[in-house]
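Task card 7
Instruction: Convert sequence to structure tokens.
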Amino acid sequence: MKDRGPRLFAIVLAAAGFVVSGVLEYVHAKTYLLPHADSFCSIDATYDCGSVALSRMSVLLGIPLPIWGAAGFLMIGSAIKRRSILTLPLTAIATLASVGLLLESLLHVGAVCLLCETVHVLSLLLLIVAIWQRKAWREAPDREALLGIGLFPASLLLIALLLAPRYWEPLTWQREVPHPTGVTEDGHPWVGAETPAVVVEEWVDYGCPHCAMATNRMRMRMVNDGDEIRVVRRHEPRMRCNKVNQGCGPLRAALCAEQQGKFWEMDSWLFVHAPGNRGLDTTVGAETLGLDLEVFERCIDADETWTQADGLWRKARRMKIRNTPTYVIDDEKLDTKSAHEKIDAAL
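Output:
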């Protein structure tokens, strides 16, 4: 038949999309479970699959987006095989979703994922083939056809929702902090051991997705080693903290929560909500944590808070902290992987 070649090509495209989605799921899980590990898909700050994997849109309705993609390509492939009239609308939906996710990456994450873009290109090629061969999609879906097209994709999504481990969900301290806390002699909050075997300065920015994962990993580690590790929170804001640029909103929120005895709870809340969210309303966090909202809102815009936040920015510059997360142990600056190796050696 005349449509055999294009239809076979479309099936190959759908199969390629399914495979790439599977690789993306591997990258997604690895980014959360092994935040220190190198990724073949992360080239630099612009082309970084890790940053995209950590974005607010990487999980939809409790299912990672790569699994949604795999299910979508399965459905499209089944529709193509059956010459179903659903082929054109399914490929159109996939392409529109690709455009939306690309805009999300560019506008909110500030990085793109080459594997994601491969999926987006495959979706676009499938739409082009579907439009080109639109007369080939003539089979109206009856009940049996609908079941054949949707059964396996729906089963994949259901298994992911009900049985897959929710590795992307962070360990948070929003309800209570399960370790002793205090303040260092120079005024920086600490959590963990009162008589530590190792003291770790963790330099972060609340808008940094990799910081969110790194701090989550440290919290998970402290479940077993909290009586030997002390973590000191240090800040490296990406921009000046002054009223001119209205920067450092999350940092100011943390400082104001500290005044009400809830620094680590706010610290945890911010790492869940701030990365990739430039317009974050920190008052929501204050309300969630049960802070006095009137006191909190006054504190956020108080001159003293601006001065304190900007002072932390200046201190990071003086210490030449340029990247986040950065760890300092025994006056040595380390990346995440090296820091945990040094902690292992110390313990």
